[in-house]
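Shift notes (night). Ran GntR family transcriptional regulator while the centrifuge was going.
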Amino acid sequence: MLNWHNGPTNSGDASLISPILSPVHTASRDDAVLHALVDFVTGEGLKPGDRLPTERLLAEHLRVSRTTVREALTRWQELGLVERRQGSGTYLKAAVTRNMLHMPLTLPSGNDFNSLMHTLEIRRGLEAEAAVLCAERATDADIALIEQKLIVMEEAFHARHGMSADEDWDFHLAVFRTSGNPLFEQIIAAMYEMFHRFWEHPLGVRDFGHASFPYHRTLFNAIAARDPIAARGEALKLIATVEDDLKRGAAYLKKQNKKSQA
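Came back to this:
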């Protein structure tokens, strides 16, 4: 295996690319480029966090234009498979193989009430079922990790006098991962950006998330007790508080709009 991905980003030596990345000879260039990239990633054993070769080097070895490579990487970026960092390069965010079916989620980019509620309705089902599986499958080590994330979240809450998006996310992420089903994390992660923006600008709800705080502890207690029914119930209670906050935010905006039109 070559360690080119840990080296300098400005190298022009085409020999740095593994022979695994073969030239493309087909009419269906778009799919062929994607397949060639998948073969390269798997052949090189690249993992999330590793850097891909530059677009120029990829284009030279695939014998396609840089535009074609750029479009392929853009498709991967839209699917959440890679991340482009300005001045640094393109990095793998998720594992890829030819056997995987990648399905993008199209979500509204606004902070409007309806969009947030649509997302929350999906999240309600995912959170509840992930909690059930987590309670059924968690090992002692898993429970210890979830408790650690919970303690960090609780400390952040008391230190900042309110919920913090990052620590809250880390706690929920630990629950998703312990469920044993990677699809929970992938789907929820696609929704994360929308809710993160709401944390930053919560539609006038200054205490957004406060009401959900105690349910993180009760959710953990149910998981630690290996009680899937109780875990589902606590997860639903937690999401219900978020829904209440969204409705309060929508009511606040409606009131502000009436004032501005008066």
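Strands lie at 82-85, 89-92. The first strand starts at residue 82 and ends at 85.
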